[in-house]
Amino acid sequence: MTKEEGEIERERGIHLNRPECHPLIPHTPVPWSAEFLSPARTGVTAMPLPGDRPTDHTGPAPRSASSAPVPLGRAAIAASEDACTTSIAPFSGAPLGHVPHCGPDDIDRAFAAARTAAHRWSARGLRERAAVFLRFHDLLIRHQDEVLDLIQQETGKARRDAFDEIVDVVLTARYYGRRAPGLLRPRRRRGALPLLTATVEVHHPRGVVGVVTPWNYPLALALSDAVPALIAGNGVVCKPDFQGAFTAVWAQGLLRRAGLPDGLFQVVTGPGDVVGPSVVAHSDYVCFTGSADTGRAVAALAGRHLIGCTLELGGKNALIVLDDADVDAAAEGAVRSCYTSAGQLCMSAERVLVHTSRHDAFLRAFTDKTRALRLGASLDYRADMGSLVSAARLRAVHGHIQDAVARGAHLVTGGRPRPELGPFFYEPTILTGVTDEMSLHHQEVFGPVAAVYPFSDEREAVERANSGSYGLNASVWTSRPARGRRLGMRIRAGTVSVNEAHAAAYASLDAPMGGMRDSGINRRHGRDGILNYTEAQTLAVQRAMPLSAPTGTADQSYADRISRLLLTAKRLGL
């Protein structure tokens, strides 16, 4: 590698292509013609943004998705296979890049390298390891525009939604960078016999953690689990989706720039049904985010190999508007909850439950705010909502809506593709009259679709929220927070936010986050979110009286002494 190439690598934080590596090749963006931004409302002519008006020249010029190249040059994943999959830019439908398929030997090498690096890494002090991620925190904020462009081009989401990923990873890096030394320090535990047994709990890294991630949050999901796993002293092998591979490689480079040792964070790519099981089989612990069906397969494979796993799976989340709620605030919250990342977020609300006394006013406000959303392929903050990720996702979303309407649901707004904006754009949609036999009543749509249901009292609201098999997230809107908390405790969901869509609970990094029932097992965030990646060990030192009768001591006499000691300990509250 030349000196100039080395400077480029350090500046971009990426691996340049090596002769022995199969290149991850970004495709030159293809210019395309489309209406830049448009209101979501069906049949309304697109209005110019304030910054686009001839009389208003404030603010930056719009940046279309075709105006900025993928900031990777020629990055590399060590793959020996010739096969690759073409990643598609959702904004245009044009090829974005070619992602290699890693073979069995590539997976072996990735895990071997991560395991070797982890052995050296775990020998470093915990504060030294944590310091790497506090540096990473600052670097990510400084270089956010690079990866924001990349996230948008891989996923098609609006920039405001891509920025949520920056915030998530930054908060995670700061939380564990500061708290990990305390969370992982040896802790004194009460021994078998008070004062006579000194017991300490210590934690060791597991080895190498496998992280298998979907396409919808390529930065956040690649790193939210990896950061605590790495700080705990493990290596990580990340298997991103084809539509998130560029972002994962970019993150790998920035981690190295922050001081993470070479080889410790590996990226492997390929078909999920081929590479995924291999990653699980090689791992000492695995984290998976994705569908419930695939999560069950991951859990079964993890069980076969006797390793632990964390699964964050789907959701059919409810947003509840009580009879004392501020209608306008609740409608604004519903827009955020239902249409963030075009609804391609496991914590998004798809069921909006509204008290009958607020139903009509809420529906009007919710509809008006939904129709006012601006859709567009914009590499800046001018668009409110971006695209769906693929043609398959578009077909699935539209199919659910067509099924509901055919069975009698009322389409309030939306319900149609917007090909003039880009091949996979779909209008944010509201339906009423959705019933049990309609697929979107019980299946996760994973798109910008909200079904609004009336309810008459809290009991009915809780029953509706708890119906179905999922239990990931819920949202309660009320003018009395204490009432919202009480109702929230009756909902079988891993997180519940009061007067907020989902970010309040998710961003509370000191508290556990995860799902109940079919929405997953185990938790990320908080103490659980780092202890998952460790093996607990108990060290006990017995002083004075042993716990079993010494040789030569009458068993009855010893049993009497121990019995008296146990009764005394109970009386003393020990």
UniProtKB/TrEMBL annotation:
GO molecular function: oxidoreductase activity, acting on the aldehyde or oxo group of donors, NAD or NADP as acceptor
Domain of life: Bacteria
Keywords on record: Oxidoreductase
InterPro entries: Ald_DH/histidinol_DH, Ald_DH_C, Ald_DH_CS_GLU, Ald_DH_N, Aldehyde_DH_dom
Active site: 312
Low complexity bias spans: 60-69
Family annotation (PROSITE patterns): ALDEHYDE_DEHYDR_GLU
UniProt-annotated stretches for the region Disordered: 44-70
Domain Aldehyde dehydrogenase: 83-538
NCBIfam families: PRK09407.1
Family assignment from sequence similarity: Belongs to the aldehyde dehydrogenase family.
Protein's name in the database: Succinate-semialdehyde dehydrogenase (NADP(+))
Species lineage: Bacteria, Bacillati, Actinomycetota, Actinomycetes, Kitasatosporales
